[in-house]
Write a structure and sequence with these properties.
This protein is of the alpha+beta class and about 260 residues long. Helix content is about 30%, strand content about 30%. Helix 3 (about 55-70) crosses helix 4. It is globular.
Length: about 260
């Protein structure tokens, strides 16, 4: 029995040029390169420049993904952008991406599930493609977390940076077997009981401010340690992921939200 699968045609990523090292952070707050590396493995993070928005990062990553896939932007009829740091409260950052590529058909919208956002966006696009509603999707994860960090809180500011990753998905008819290419299954979950463990203390409705990221580090660490689209792009580019490989993606984010996707490259 045949089945429509969402097949990955290509992927791409983008990191801002500005780099903030552990040593530079140590000059600002009570921390050290040794302390950060020992606990996180992080030595540096990329920070968006003044005037560089989430949409700019997303556009760069999308352009790279389209080039890698070898397809024209006009063939995209769905854009799902996962972000917790949109350019504006509305409209969706996805429409800025859509407009930049001159795409005036189909649909574009944002999705918010914090660090699980890319998996949620992937599952959403997959369901739309398998339903036949759309044919080709651009799925993007993009963040400028540096804009919501409290740079005096060493428990959070050392962990996050800015960047974007994107993939192109194409609806293709497959034999309907485990050997099919494309997304084979996705699973999404959330549990609001843990929302106070990782959150931003602001918002349009509550404080009329953007707010800062707050986290109970030890509690969050019990649930997860791990970014997907960037790592996926790097692994595909350096040959660690090859056509036909079975790839398992998983993520966890504030809420708590978590999810997974199994796909054959």
């Amino acid at each position: 029995m045949t089945a429509i699968r969402s097949v990955v045609l290509g992927c791409g990523s983008y990191l801002p040029q500005q780099i903030l090292t552990n040593a530079e952070l140590a000059a600002r707050i009570d921390t050290s390169d040794e302390w950060i590396v020992q606990r996180t493995g992080i030595r540096q993070r990329h920070i968006a420049a003044d005037g560089e928005f989430t949409s700019h990062l997303a556009i760069h990553a999308a352009r790279a993904a389209l080039a890698n896939a070898g397809v024209d932007a006009q063939s995209i009829d769905l854009i799902v952008l996962a972000t917790s740091t949109p350019d504006h409260t509305f409209p969706a950052t996805a429409v800025a991406v859509q407009n930049d590529f001159g795409i005036h058909h189909g649909a574009a919208f944002d999705l918010q599930a914090v660090c699980s956002g890319f998996i949620f966006a992937l599952a959403t696009a997959d369901n739309f493609l398998r339903s036949g509603a759309f044919k080709r999707a651009l799925v993007i994860g993009a963040e400028t977390f540096s804009r919501i960090l409290d740079w005096n809180d060493r428990g959070t500011c050392v962990l996050f940076g800015d960047g974007a990753g994107a993939i192109v998905l194409d609806a293709q008819l497959q034999p309907g077997k485990p050997s099919d290419r494309g997304i084979l299954t996705t699973h999404l979950r959330s549990d609001g009981r843990h929302k106070s463990k990782l959150y931003v203390d602001g918002g349009p409705s509550s404080t009329q401010t953007v707010g800062y990221l707050r986290m109970e580090g030890r509690e969050v660490f019990k649930h997860a340690v791990a970014s997907i689209p960037l790592a996926l792009s790097v692994a595909a580019a350096d040959g660690r992921i090859k056509k036909g490989d079975l790839v398992l993606l998983e993520a966890m984010g504030g809420g708590f939200t978590w999810g997974s996707a199994l796909l054959r490259w």
